[in-house]
Amino acid sequence: MRSFSSRLLIRFGVTVLSIVALLSSILLCNLALVTAAPLASSQSSLRPNEMRSLIEQAKDAWVAGNGAAFAQLFVEDGELIVPGQRWQGRAVIQRESDRFNQDFSVTIEIQSILIEGNHAAVAWNWCETPKKVSLGSSVPVRQAQDAIFVDFEAGGIRRWREYIDNETPQHWPHFCP
């Protein structure tokens, strides 16, 4: 049987190989911490299809620009971490999502979702376009490949940790619509 990090390498393929080594070690550390302190029995685990559904709903909420829908996927004191930022609690996650959604439209293409226990690893392509552009200027589209580690507990997402590669995609064919 292949280890989780081996399956991660195979599923993500060579397109994100540059970040997979780092992410594998981070995931293994996260899994070790969670394994060392299992969830209380009152926090029963979600089924894989429920975890996959929450990830799809997160994508749909970002694309729709709906910060409230995105925040509701988290447990009350859930945590969202992106490079340089950490937000905890539904109200804070909604506020920061809404702040972003005021200025940008988003397109997301999920590449893969891997589930192991109460954890998921997600790879998706992210494109953001400013909603306001000066007359006569070109529309700057920013694209990135994101690797996301999600921890679940009964009731929703406990922790969403996102690693963003916005350098490498610039050298590939444009995948934004």
Question: How is this structure best summarized?
Answer:
This protein is of the alpha+beta class. It is built from 5 helices and 6 strands; from the N terminus they run H-H-H-H-E-E-H-E-E-E-E. Mean pLDDT is 78; it is low at 1-42.
Overview of the structural elements:
The chain has 5 helices and 6 strands; from the N terminus they run ααααββαββββ. The radius of gyration is 17 Å and the shape is globular. The chain has 177 residues and is α+β, with helices and mostly antiparallel strands. The model is unreliable at 1-42 (pLDDT under 50). Helices cover 37% and strands 34% of the residues.
Radius of gyration: 17 Å
The parts where pLDDT drops under 50 for at least 5 residues are 1-42
Mean pLDDT: 78
- Tally the beta strands: 6
List the helices and strands and how they pair.
Elements: H1 4-12, H2 17-36, H3 48-64, H4 67-71, E1 74-82, E2 85-88, H5 90-103, E3 104-116, E4 119-130, E5 142-153, E6 156-165
Parallel strand pairs: 1-6
Antiparallel strand pairs: 1-2, 3-4, 4-5, 5-6
Helix pairs in contact: 1-2
Which key features would you list for this structure?
6-stranded mixed sheet; alpha+beta; 177 residues; disordered N terminus
